[in-house]
Amino acid sequence: PGATLTELPGASHLAPAERPEAVLTALRAHFDGGAGRGMAVRREVLGDAHVDRAQSRQSPFTARFQDFISRYAWGEIWTDETLSRRERSMVTLTALVAHGHYEELAMHVRAARRNGLTADEIGAVLLQTAVYCGVPAANSAFATAQRVLAEEDPGAG
């Protein structure tokens, strides 16, 4: 009960020698409820494919950062029950537009859909950003979101 399987790309039977940072991250996730809980939430919100890609690109240089975001962003912030995941998605979309992080916006448009936001609700959030973040930022955000939504549901709009 409660067992999990962790696969480390690029490692075989000597994983601690071949991918020491990835092994350390996996062990921390196992023994640290925050990172383990965070990784579970990260997978639920962003999807297994995205998280698997991020983990496969992990290097000794980025391992501590990956551990940090799993423990802090996903294990502490996204698990706080004060806001729902839908509300967190709306806040996140707005912050990403405000700072012009459109690659992250694309990822979080997908996450917002996973968290139950409709395309119309995402559009309403982006319209709100036009007032507070500026029309050019919202224009770029709408283009990003439209592309993502079309990829997710080619028959829509």
What is shown here, in short?
By secondary structure, the chain is mainly α. The chain has helices at 15-18, 20-31, 33-46, 48-56, 63-77, 85-98, 102-114, 119-132, 135-152.
Write the SSE topology.
Elements: H1 15-18, H2 20-31, H3 33-46, H4 48-56, H5 63-77, H6 85-98, H7 102-114, H8 119-132, H9 135-152
Helix pairs in contact: 2-3, 2-5, 3-4, 3-5, 6-7, 6-8, 7-9, 8-9
Outline the structure in words.
α6 runs antiparallel to α7 (102-114). The chain is elongated and about 55 Å long. The longest helix is centred in the last third of the chain and has 18 residues, at 135-152. Helix content is 72%, strand content 0%. The protein folds into 2 domains: 15-77, no CATH class; 85-152, AhpD-like (Up-down Bundle), CATH 1.20.1290.10. The protein has 157 residues and is mostly helical.
Q: Features of this protein?
A:
157 residues; 2 domains
Task: Report on the biggest sheet.
Answer: none
Structural class: mainly alpha
Low-confidence stretches: none
Given the C-alpha coordinates, what overall shape results? elongated
